[in-house]
Amino acid sequence: MLAAIEVSTRVSSVALLDLVTGEELAECPLPGDWESSVTLIPALETLLKQRDLTPQDLAAVAVSTGPGSFTGIRVGIATAEGLCLPGDLLAFGIPTLDGLAENLRAEEMTGEALCLLDAQRGEVFAGHYDIGKEDFQELGPASILSMDKLAGVLKGRAWVSGPGALKYEKEVREALGAQGMFAFTQTHTPKAMSIARLAYRRWQKGERPRLADLKPLYLRPPAVDEK
After folding, report:
1. Residue 13 pairs with which residues in a beta bridge?
2. Section 175-204 average pLDDT
3. What is the b/e burial string over 156-177, where b = at least 16 CB atoms within 10 angstroms of the residue's CB?
4. What burial class does residue 102 get, using C-beta atoms within 10 Å of its C-beta: 0-12 exposed, 13-18 middle, 19+ buried?
5. Residue from 162, 222, 165, 170 nearest 194 by CA
6. Do 194 and 162 touch, CB atoms closer than 8 A?
7. Can you give the pTM of this predicted structure?
8. Domain ranges within the chain, ordered by starting residue
9. What angle, rounded to 10 degrees, do the helices at 192-204 and 96-106 form?
10. For 109-187, which CATH class?
11. What pLDDT does 145 receive?
12. What is the DSSP string of 69-86?
């Protein structure tokens, strides 16, 4: 059994996936008016109880590693560490932008895509992908971009998705013009089940990552470190 955690943005969720069959068992959003550090473990416990499972039934944990909220990333990784340590579980770290790309793949929105997260300061964390039917490929490393740099990344018309696209919709539309195709609403939200599916595909390929391999992906240092 695999538990997945997505708390790198303001919209958080947890999910369960059966590693034996690949069945997507359950996904639960976390209350938006509470801190994820308070609701994360209770939400996971609820999902497990609904399936007559306990944390001892878990073989792996997948967690979104960022970029995104520094606090959220830390909470997610710390929770994954707490779950993995007692039983030395597998620990899959999945970039948040990859999760957004998986949202598009699951909705069969194939082709070039630009996945965006809010980086503050009028900038976005950007992931550039080629979305296929069965998987996707990263066309370049994740980066921090200002609005005037977005069009220069694209090769042609591309899907645009993510919380950053919604926050800066006007600016993104002006920057990309006809090159940018805004994706369906449901694809803009980072989802724990997308994190779970990506971890499952890695597991199928034989990857067995351990807790020591779990690292956050910040792209930009926290403001306190910059100061």
Report:
1. 6, 29
2. 96
3. eebbbbbbbbbbbeebbeebbe
4. buried
5. 162
6. no
7. 0.95
8. 2-96+189-226, 109-187
9. 90
10. alpha beta
11. 97
12. -HHHHHHHHHHHHHHHHH
Closest C-alpha among 151, 186, 202 to residue 172: 151
For residue 144, list its beta bridge partners: 125
What value does the CA radius of gyration of the chain take, rounded to a whole number of Å?
Answer: 17
Q: Is 87 helix (H, G, I), strand (E, B) or coil?
A: helix
Asked, colleague to colleague, whether 2-96+189-226 and 109-187 share their fold, the answer is yes
Task: Report H helices in 51-168.
Answer: 70-87, 96-106, 150-153, 163-167
Q: What is the CATH number of domain 2-96+189-226?
A: 3.30.420.40
Whether the CB-CB separation of 126 and 150 falls below 8 Å is answered with yes
Q: Quote the percentage of the chain above a pLDDT of 90.
A: 90
Question: Which pLDDT does position 33 carry in this prediction?
Answer: 61
Q: What is the pLDDT of residues 8-66, one digit of tens each?
A: 998 899 999 999 999 999 999 998 765 677 889 999 999 999 999 999 999 999 999 99
Q: pLDDT (tens digit, 9 = 90+) per residue, 117-142?
A: 999 999 999 999 999 999 999 999 99
- Cα separation values, 81 from 18, 27, 30, 88, 96, Å: 20, 20, 19, 9, 18
CA distances, 105 to each of 58, 135, 189, 198, 201 (Å):
27, 7, 14, 11, 13
